[in-house]
Specification:
single chain; 164 residues; alpha+beta; Alpha-Beta Plaits; 2 domains; 4 strands; 40% helix
């Protein structure tokens, strides 16, 4: 896969969109000092190149928990018995479709995977753990850490100090 060539304006656009992807094209163009048609064309190119995967709303789990649940966040380390490519791919595929598994990272050294899991409450986490980990013969070890407070959350990647 050939890397896309990025100009300073592209980095500015990416930086702005990481902070607020709901900006109108007009506002975005003003913030990066370009014309709206140029802005639109460049953002479209960044999407087509796959640099922007998608635009989402980031929900506040503490406030949402009071209404619909999902007040339990766990960081879960998973170690498999077999670490061949097929076994690792199988585990990734297994957790990919589970809504409660928000993030999955294949890591090294140490465990094979680190997951970020959101559950309504502890009984829901226990049911998920039973379904995903305990019943899987290839899962050797599960170590869960439960969040008591979210101190920082971010999704923005550092982009070498783009300046508007």
């Amino acid at each position: 896969m050939k890397p896309i060539s990025l100009e300073p304006i592209d980095l500015l656009l990416l930086a702005q969109l990481q902070q607020d992807s709901s900006l109108s094209n007009q506002t975005l163009a003003e913030r990066v000092h370009t014309s709206p048609p140029t802005c639109l064309r460049r953002v479209k190119r960044l999407f087509e190149a796959g640099l922007i995967e998608r635009q989402v709303a980031i929900l506040n789990p503490e406030k949402l928990a009071a209404t619909v649940g999902y007040g339990l966040t766990a960081i879960v380390e998973i170690t498999l018995d077999r670490q061949d490519a097929q076994a690792l791919d199988r585990f990734e595929a297994k957790v990919a479709d589970i809504a409660e598994v928000q993030q999955c990272y294949r890591v090294s050294p140490g465990p094979d995977f680190c997951l970020v899991v959101h559950a309504v409450h502890m009984p829901a986490y226990q049911a998920l753990a039973q379904r995903l980990f305990t019943s899987d013969a290839n899962v050797r070890n599960v170590k869960a850490f439960f969040s008591i407070k979210r101190s920082k959350f971010g999704a923005a990647l550092p982009l070498h100090n783009p300046q508007p």
